[in-house]
Structure formats: structure tokens, C-alpha cells
Amino acid sequence: MQCAQTIWKRFNDSEFVEVRKHPGAANMSSLLAHRNIVRLARSGLHLTAADIRRQVSKHEGPNLSVDRKRQRLRDGTDGIKFVDRPGGNRYYPRHRLPTVKSGRGSVTVHGSFCDKGVGPFGLIEGNTGFKIYINIIETVIRPYCPKRVHCTTGQ
Asked: According to the lineage, what is the superkingdom (predicted)?
């Protein structure tokens, strides 16, 4: 009984978390290393798993498993809290981040972008079709075009 209590006390006192998924992976990694992984994944979106491993191992002694870093990169974030999804459930609806909604449901907008700036946004109601796009061009983009962008007809 004393042996189990000693093991439990060591486990609670240490700052180590088990991240072993399969044999051959790193046995332990500290909470500080996990914080560094999350920080690097949020700030450096262009970093690969190997880059993150190199940077984390500079600050921390043990090497972390590449699978754990890939999982951290795969998990989504909404900018405020880190959303952790189970492996293999990436596209399940219950693990997706919620979209921006109004009182009536989803909002679909059309916007125009060019090197001169951003055009106005137009609200699209209903299904989009050929007539909807023509209406957007006539009512939203055409009035914006002569004011902001030099438009020519080619004649």
C-alpha cells in the first residue's frame, strides 16, 4: 500500500503529463512543453510539426512526439480558447466551431476585393443563382466601381 501511495504522490507532485499514444512515442513531456506547442501553433501558422519540435526542444529538454504536435496543429482555435478535438473526428459537426449567425440563421454576404481596396458587402437572401449575381453587380458593385476604381469598357 505504501508503494502505491508513493507512486501517486510522485505523479501528483510532478509536472508531467502522459502523452503516449503508441509504443515508440515519447514517454513524458511537461506542461511547459505543451504550453509552448500551443503558443507556437497559434502564433506561427506557417510552422510545420518539425519546426515546432525544434523550437520546443530548444527551450525544453525532452523531445515531444511528432503526432502530438500534428494533433495540436490540426485542432481548431477561435482566437480565445483552444478547441481540442479527438483524433479522427475533425469534421464531425459537434467538433466544428460555430459560424457567425443572425437571429434568422446563417448570413451570406458578397464582397468585392481589388488592389484599390475593399468594396461594399451585400446581403444575399435565398439561393444564389444567375439573376442574384446580376442583381449584385448592378446594385452593389457597379455604383462602387466609378468612384473607387478606374474602369474601362475596352472600346
From this structure: Eukaryota
